[in-house]
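User: I'm new to structure prediction. If I give you an amino acid sequence, what do you actually give back? Let's try with this one:
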Amino acid sequence: MTALIAVYTGDGCAGRCDAKCYNAWGPECNCICQGGNHGAGKQEAIDNTREMAESWLEQARASGQQIVHAELVIGAQHQPLFSLGGAP
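Assistant: Good question. You get back a string of structure tokens that encode the predicted 3D arrangement of the chain. For your 88 residues, that looks like this:
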């Protein structure tokens, strides 16, 4: 299961957003995206994460989480200049 964003405190992984969230059907979301990726599908969730990751981290810190490390899936870090697939 690909995590789009994961945050860690000194005690380990404190939160992540993965397929359980972006492929969700139910109304509840309890992950780091705070509902931003909930049920959005993978590509829209990648786009959302690219745009919103920094604010999600700021909100987590503001709520008292002592985040020491955060990871983003490479597709959510930046817009690729070219495809890594085979040549057309």
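You can read the tokens as a compact description of the fold. Here is one thing that stands out. Strands lie at 5-9, 12-17, 69-72.
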